[in-house]
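agent> Task received from the user: take the single chain below, predict its 3D structure, and emit structure tokens. No templates, no multimer pairing.
agent> Plan: (1) validate residues, (2) run structure prediction, (3) serialize to tokens, (4) report one or two observations.
agent> Step 1 OK, no nonstandard residues flagged.
tool_call: predict_structure(input=
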Amino acid sequence: MTVSPRSSSQNSSYERLSVSDPVVPSSDDGTTPRHVAIIMDGNGRWASRRSRPRADGHRAGTENVRSVIFRLVERGVGYATLFAFSTENWSRPGDEISALLAILQEVIRSEAEELHSNGVRILHIGRLDRLPAELSQSIVDAVELT
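)
tool_result: status=success, residues=146
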């Protein structure tokens, strides 16, 4: 899923990034990157290390990415890509797949309006036909709304 502003007045710096801001890095010349990609990985392991259900980690990951997205908007990053569900996720246990898809459904439904009101546009990249119909429709609705 990609989020982007409705206007395109962003800079075009593609230089090497430093870690001056742990959430939104700047390039060596102090400019903000135009695009940030986030691979949502490790949330289940995070929960397991804390003796919590893996779904708790996936939920915590959505809270973290929410704050990161709004920080990206504040800093003027033009585009963010969230790699949220890979084809490898289909090989997880069925209950974990169900939890992941339910969390994704819940987040899309609860966040689309606020993202829209903050000038964020949602685009989907991937195969909707592999997802449950209700989730696919929620994604289509969020894309159309924004």
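agent> Step 4: summary for the user.
The helical segments are 43-49, 54-75, 94-117, 133-145.
agent> Done.
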